[in-house]
TrEMBL record, chain A:
Similarity section: Belongs to the bacterial solute-binding protein 2 family.
Sections of the chain in a coiled coil: none
Gene Ontology cellular component terms for the protein in this record: cell envelope
Residues annotated as signal peptide: 1-27
Compartmental location: Cell envelope
Domain Periplasmic binding protein: 31-290
Keywords in alphabetical order: Signal
Organism annotation: Devosia riboflavina
Matching InterPro entries: Peripla_BP_I, SBP_2_dom
GO molecular function: carbohydrate binding
Pfam family, one: Peripla_BP_4
Listed name of the protein: Sugar ABC transporter substrate-binding protein
UniProtKB/TrEMBL annotation, chain B:
Main location class: membrane
Keywords per UniProt: Cell inner membrane, Cell membrane, Membrane, Transferase, Transmembrane, Transmembrane helix, Transport
Gene Ontology CC: plasma membrane
Record's protein name: Dolichyl-phosphate beta-glucosyltransferase
Localization, UniProt: Cell membrane
InterPro entries (UniProt xref): ABC_transp_permease
GO molecular function: transferase activity; transmembrane transporter activity
Source organism per UniProt: Devosia riboflavina
Length: 310, 320
């Protein structure tokens, strides 16, 4: 044990990174995707579809997940600017990473939003129309309960794309004088959102034991809807006709909707379409084109028992 | 020789990392602009880790720093959104951190709860409070005065380097000032030496007349204050505040202090060693991003590095 052991260990790590780092060299354009939200199911679909288009264009794509840390997104954008990549794609509220966007702009590197939010420092933001999606499900709820009864809302105002959904649902329910919003719940999403939503719903069910005292659960995305469904089924109250809707139509939600229980509707965002459309926008700008719309909308679709299996 | 390995292994590893990145990324890594970026990127962690060093000198922990940082950011953002001046918002947020830290200190030293458990509980409390006062919302956009966000983007111009204008970022300056203050406190004052005495043997320190309870209370308060400062820097950098944004700081701060302890004689935390620990973490993120190493692989490497550094020093320590 004469040689410095930890120095040896460091050398080993460094050697490993050389091998990993040089894996994807010699491609034409360098494009990076930076997101703090990779763990969200939708994000993986965008990224995969983006990578598919990128592969056709022979780009070198660097996907960076900062695991929830927004300041780290700024740091990584700064690193990419120093590295002089050709384009950067972000999947985070742009107003929170202005410092990074500004340094990219100063260096003349175009930045694209992939379901991020509109911002003057972005070339364009590619997204679903959140207002329209929430209008689809909240009017579905209002129509199904014939414009009267108590509704439980699950919202998440900390994430702007989900926050706008809540705003529209508030407006729609507020427009029916006989609909009462019983509770506006923000679940803890650190475990994915289902478990805590279930616990919150169990408490609400316990507080409202009368059949018919809860007519519907409107959730701003699918996980709370699934949690609420579990709570309602476990409480033995699935026969009361409580209508549940989600948004995003993830596989678990589609399965629940297809099964024909309380979970009746959701809206499918075309995540793959968003990823592919973002990549196409990058391709257009790299080809020298100018993009005029600050937001590029990709169409969505209401999912019910009729089309859930598709 | 073994003492040499123990004390300088991490430092040699650090230099090896710098040499490696400079060799692989000669055009971008060893530039002034990149290094100024790094100092800015690690500034928040630096401040929180400096505060963490104070309690870890006594062998204690503070798991609540991340939540305290989030809470401070939220408090300041809410005050600014309500039209209060920036200085008042910052002052109140720092006070919240100080009081939160004092509460931790009271639980640990006066009530006598283990720091791990006491701060685990306050971690949840502070986080819950941040959610309660903010209603779970991210406070951003026009609610935050432009000057507050601009502060993190500003700095002292240092002239040109290779045709690019560079400046010493304001956040880096704050980090340097905090590190200097903690250095003076721990290395140059009786208070600091007493904290090390408590860390060496609390019973002996108590018997030799050191007011252990009071000193621990003050130490935890300072850690809370630093956490709040880190949270405010974070809020300024992202020009927004949400109730969870500081949560990543806690584990990284502890990791940085641990990395640092592998460089000191008896494995005790030293502020300058913590600085090296923080920079190691920041440099790895910066260099590996530039090398396009997958971000998950990066996490594994950073974790492995901490294990290796600490293992190398504790194995040799065990043999001695």
């Amino acid at each position: 044990m004469s040689l410095n052991k930890s120095a040896l260990a460091f050398a080993g790590i460094l050697l490993a990174t050389t091998v990993l780092g040089t894996g994807a060299a010699l491609a034409q354009a360098k494009v990076a995707i930076v997101t703090p939200y990779m763990a969200q199911p939708g994000t993986q679909f965008y990224v995969e579809a983006f990578e598919a288009v990128a592969a056709e264009n022979d780009w070198e794509v660097n996907v960076i997940d900062t695991a929830g840390d927004v300041a780290a997104v700024i740091s990584r954008i700064e690193d990419l600017v120093v590295q002089n990549v050709d384009a950067i794609v972000i999947n985070v509220d742009p107003t929170q990473v202005t410092a990074g966007l500004q340094s990219a702009k100063d260096a003349g590197i175009p930045v694209f939003g992939m379901d991020a939010g509109a911002d003057p420092l972005l070339v364009t933001n590619v997204t679903s129309n959140g207002y329209a999606m929430a209008a689809e499900t909240s009017t579905y709820v209002a129509d199904r309960i014939k414009g009267e009864g108590n509704v439980v809302m699950f919202v998440f105002d900390a994430f702007p794309p989900v926050q706008v959904r809540g705003v529209v649902a508030d407006a729609v329910f507020g427009n029916f004088p006989d609909i009462k919003v019983l509770d506006r719940v923000t679940p803890d999403v650190s475990d994915g959102g289902i478990a805590d939503s279930r616990a919150k719903m169990e408490a609400i069910l316990a507080a409202n034991p009368e059949p018919g005292s809860i007519k519907a659960v409107w959730a701003a995305w699918d996980q709370p809807a699934l949690g609420a469904l579990q709570a309602i089924e476990d409480a033995g109250r699935s026969g009361e006709g409580i209508v549940i809707t989600g948004i995003d139509a993830n596989p678990q939600a589609r399965e629940a909707i297809a099964a024909g229980g309380n979970f009746e509707a959701s809206v499918a965002q075309d995540f793959a379409g968003i990823g592919a459309t973002t990549a196409e926008a990058v391709a257009r700008v790299l080809a020298g084109e100018e993009i005029l719309q600050s937001v590029t909308y990709v169409p969505t679709k209401l999912v019910t028992a009729a089309n859930a299996a598709e | 020789m073994q003492l040499f390995v123990r004390r300088y292994g991490t430092l040699i590893g650090f230099v090896a990392i710098l040499v490696f990145f400079s060799a692989v990324l000669p055009g971008t890594f060893p530039t002034a602009r990149n290094w100024l970026n790094i100092t800015q990127q690690v500034s928040m962690l630096m401040v929180v880790a400096a505060g963490m060093t104070i309690v870890m000198v006594m062998g204690d922990f503070d798991l609540s720093v991340g939540s305290a940082a989030s809470l401070a950011g939220i408090v300041a953002a809410l005050m600014m959104a309500a039209g209060q001046p920036i200085w008042a918002a910052v002052a109140v947020a720092l006070l919240v951190g100080l009081l939160g830290g004092a509460f931790n200190g009271a639980m640990v030293s006066l009530v006598g709860i283990l720091p791990f458990i006491a701060t685990l509980a306050t971690m949840t409390m502070f986080s819950g409070l941040a959610f309660v006062v903010s209603g779970g919302k991210t406070i951003s956009g026009r609610a935050i005065p432009e000057d507050f966000g601009n502060f993190a983007r500003g700095g002292i111009p240092l002239g040109e380097w290779g045709g690019v204008a560079i400046s010493l970022p304001n956040l880096s300056i704050i980090a340097i000032v905090v590190v200097l203050a903690v250095w003076v406190l721990l290395e140059q004052t009786t208070y600091g030496r007493r904290l090390y005495a408590i860390g060496g043997n609390m019973e002996a320190a108590h018997l030799s007349g050191i007011a252990v309870k009071r000193l621990r209370l003050i130490a935890f308060s300072l850690t809370g204050l630093a956490a709040a400062a880190g949270g405010l820097m974070y809020a300024s950098r992202v020009a927004s505040a949400n109730p969870v944004q500081g949560s990543g700081l806690m584990l990284n701060a502890i990791a940085a202090v641990f990395l640092g302890t592998t460089m000191s004689r008896h494995g005790e935390p030293r502020i300058l060693a913590t600085v090296v620990g923080v920079i190691v973490l920041g440099v790895l993120d910066n260099g590996l991003t530039q090398m396009s190493v997958d971000s998950y692989v990066r996490q594994v490497l950073v974790g492995a590095l901490i294990l290796l550094a600490v293992a190398a020093s504790s194995v040799t320590q065990g043999r001695r």
